[in-house]
Amino acid sequence: MKEIERKFLVDHNSDWRAEAVESKQISQGYIPTLPGATVRVRVKGEAGFLTIKGPTKGISRSEFEYSIPAEDAREMLETLCQGRAIHKIRHVIHHGGHEWTVDEFLGDHDGLLLAEIELGSEDEAFDLPKWATREVSHDSRYFNSNLIGAETPPTV
Amino acid sequence: MKEIERKFLVDHNSDWRAEAVESKQISQGYIPTLPGATVRVRVKGEAGFLTIKGPTKGISRSEFEYSIPAEDAREMLETLCQGRAIHKIRHVIHHGGHEWTVDEFLGDHDGLLLAEIELGSEDEAFDLPKWATREVSHDSRYFNSNLIGAETPPTV
């Protein structure tokens, strides 16, 4: 599957939170890989996931995601992801016929809010919610895989 | 799951092949990782597998294996494993109440035969078949993950 995402910062003073239809805590980490692929381990609510992603090409990348037991995911997070994980609450928002997610980071990156929309093609049109501000799709500091163990990038 | 394996070279002049009860071709590669974990992609017959293994401790290591579509595995082998794969025929042999596998390497490591037995504990007793020769359990040159892109280690 090809994943095409656009990513934006979120206005902290807006009422985006009132639009959330679902909110689930996510803990995720990465098995340390060489550049070219990422291996993500995620616990989302009571479900586990293992996700392999290829290199980013423009705003597309190949993605292979599999459901795994949450217990396996927790053990891999602890033992294989160098004990470093990202913790966030993922809020789902329906806007303009698209599904958006707003990730509210906890812990090390407290204060960071990242909105994402997944598109069917690189040129698909979409309506930008008023609470979405600066686009950071191409800014590698905001890649989840780069946030681990790094300084928090600008939150506005 | 803990994986406890012992690994032996095989006498090329013996009749081990007559004892095989199953033989299947395997193609496998590794997503390049930093030391500490391996991420193996495997196509075995018409099935695909993704296997995460932790670091080897003695002859034990943690292992998480998941069935995936063979099509995904083939695509990952081609696009994410740097085009390098190991190809081998895995023969299953029943001996002394245990299941052994003999891997007959093809391509780059043609001529290499590796027998393996999986044990329930590190000190479990087993009968060594007469065709099994030198033990190489602790020799990292024979780890599948190290055979990729490397010289073939001694085959006797």
From TrEMBL, chains A, B:
The active site is at residue 30. Residues 1-149 form the CYTH domain. It comes from the Bacteria. InterPro entries: CYTH-like_dom_sf, CYTH_domain, NeuTTM/CthTTM-like. PANTHER family: SLR0698 PROTEIN. This is CYTH domain-containing protein. The lineage of its organism: Bacteria, Deltaproteobacteria, Bradymonadales, Microvenatoraceae, Microvenator.
